[in-house]
Amino acid sequence: QQQVKQSPQSLIVQKGGISIINCAYENTAFDYFPWYQQFPGKGPALLIAIRPDVSEKKEGRFTISFNKSAKQFSLHIMDSQPGDSATYFCAASSTGTYKYIFGTGTRLKVLA
Amino acid sequence: NAGVTQTPKFQVLKTGQSMTLQCAQDMNHNSMYWYRQDPGMGLRLIYYSASEGTTDKGEVPNGYNVSRLNKREFSLRLESAAPSQTSVYFCATSISMGSQPQHFGDGTRLSIL
Fold first, then answer.
1. Whether pLDDT at A1 is above 70
2. Is residue B57 a contact partner of residue B42, using CB atoms and an 8 Å limit?
3. Which residue of chain B has the CA closest to A100?
């Protein structure tokens, strides 16, 4: 019930295309769903996050879509660029606990 | 403005040796965390400190100890290193526990022979 399942494990997209990464969770107590971006040799950095009171959040080329009934959320990267090539992690947490459950990561490669 | 600083960046140890990984933050955050990152397994929480003066076990605490030295510093100690502890270790901070953004250091890459 504490897992966050992330797919796909790896993704190759042409420059200018749309990258889509999906995550699914079981614990309905989760109330915060962030996405982190990690470049080689660096720590994860917060990219965008959503709370379950909205179904979509957009920041520039990055959009989170959230489906509360299906217990799924996804990251969409529009107009993907080679500089977006990185590993992306979804996560989920709930207020009042220390738990921050990470997905297993998606390695994205955007071809020039 | 360094954010979260981890030292050392790389370390090679022999089985049975001990060492301490250091983490310092200048973000004035209350909560600090230690994770390990292994291929295909995401990030797993080793220990956390909700606030200065408190520490608690996370998901994978065996073989590790921590010290919250003050609000800024949170160290992770391996008393007797084992090859299974070969990993990349990340320190993170957040303003408080739970549903808040976490800010990560750039990690310590640890190999145990």
1. no
2. no
3. B98
